[in-house]
Each structure stands twice: as C-alpha cells, then as structure tokens.
Design brief:
Layout (H helix, E strand, L loop, with lengths): L1 H14 L1 H47 L6 H6 L3 H15 L4 H8 L2 H23 L1
Amino acid sequence: MSSEYLDKIFEYIEENQDAQNTFLEVLKQVSYGAAGGVAGGILAGPIGGLIGTVTGGIIGYKQAKDYKNAFQLYQNLREDQVQSFTSFVQEKVNGTTFNDFKQWWKATDNQIVFMTALVGLSKAQQLSIKE
C-alpha cells in the first residue's frame, strides 16, 4: 500500500514540470542566495541584499551540477524507510488518497516540506551506511 502510494506521488511530481522546477530551484539556489543576500545586505543595505541574492543564486546554481534529485533518492530507500516516509506524508497531507495529496501539493510550502523530508531521510540513510 505505502509503496504504491509513493509511486503515484512520484509519478505525479515527475509529470508536473512546475513542481520539478520549484524543487530544483529551491535546492540549487536557496542557501547560496540567502547567504549572498545576508552578506550583501550587511555590506551595502537593501541594494546589496538584492545583488548578493542574485550573485548567491548564480553561485548556487553552478555548485549544484552533480546533485541527485528526489526521484533518485526515493529509489534508494529501504522498505522500512518507505513505510516511515509514507506515514509522514499521509500525516502532513491529513489524508491517505492520491487526490488528498494533489490538493496538498498545490502549496509551494508543502512541496518544500515534502522534499526537505525526503532529502533528510536520504542523508540519514547515507550516514547509517557509513557507520
């Protein structure tokens, strides 16, 4: 049940170009853009923040060339991690059907929650493999 639920979710995300673009832009540029914005704002005020954010976004884009996407991460999860992640998603969505998920997914904040949780789970898996 849970694997089928997640398979449908990932199929939906793969087909949704806007969702893919949002996710990739967040992961590639948000940390560099935010850091650049803070540094620029501290050094030169509001215009410095703007310039720093743009510059940081460009650097973030260039630094993220070999980034694994969420779909690759999902394929490497163990069955117990799939079960755990499914429960997490269903709890956040406050529903168990795919239509519930599609409604929930429309909010960009929810997309970020989903992707952040998946990346965190993947990192935890990588750490447990190294130990």
